[in-house]
């Protein structure tokens, strides 16, 4: 474990520009390189999250790279960060450059990035945001062009509210998108977008999933990346060990459709329960409160606060709140 760390935050006019600088930043050997856009920040503001940290961001940028350096002592970590910051001032892209070497300030900057999933899922005044195209990845040297292509695809489908963030040093992109998953037309648009997005990332030599795996949410699209012949070979190889298709069915071989087992869907009619609690942030609706769970586990705790009592007793993940709620897509 690296005992001391320091952060340099680079600001850019758009996500594509921040992605363009990823290769040159990586040459400096950071221990972490994360990215996020201004929507991630504005949605945190809308929810009243990390406001003190947001105040420390420079005015103007619409996208950021969070670059972390490590060393044996705080002075060495700070010196590595300052040396990189000096180099960054000379980048042709002319990013804003801010050094954070204090422990508290660094923690605040990380909170901005770590809050991205929870902050961008359900934003007041906006349609619910869903995953679906979560976790695509390209080589770091192609991330700038891919981010521009993805943002253009969002605009084409009317998904301008979709945020972008992720592990840019590894070329892995996370996102939340305002899919309509309860009408036939909306689900049709979801299918069309997913196919177009798959072809987009493959056009850059990338992967439909760079971190969390394919599963049901992308298995139907895998022939776009691997080709039908290789998919058939996968199926034949699996059949050698699993002739009755009992092991993890509906994934790589003979996959379910990406819209076949949606948590929502056109027949989504949740039971309306009379509850003791008012759920004021969810229009008094328990089922809307349930939909706000994105499975990130921030509610998981062993004492104090609000937490499912069964988990407090068993300490088993299946008894936790996110363990009981399946993903939407």
Short overview:
With 329 residues, the protein is α+β, with helices and mostly antiparallel strands. It contains 15 helices and 7 strands.
Task: Report on the architecture of this protein.
This protein is an alpha+beta fold. The protein folds into three domains: 4-120, 2-Layer Sandwich (Alpha-Beta Plaits); 125-241, Alpha-Beta Plaits (2-Layer Sandwich); 280-324, no CATH class. It is built from 15 helices and seven strands. The chain has helices spanning 15-20, 22-26, 38-47, 51-54, 74-88, 103-114, 116-121, 143-157, 184-203, 215-218, 222-226, 228-241, 286-291, 309-314, 321-324, and strands at 4-12, 32-37, 63-71, 96-100, 136-137, 163-167, 172-176. It has a seven-stranded antiparallel beta sheet, sandwiched between helices. A hairpin with a 4-residue loop joins strand 6 and strand 7. The longest helix is centred in the middle third of the chain and has 20 residues, at 184-203. It is globular and about 60 Å long. The two termini are 36 Å apart. The mean pLDDT is 90.
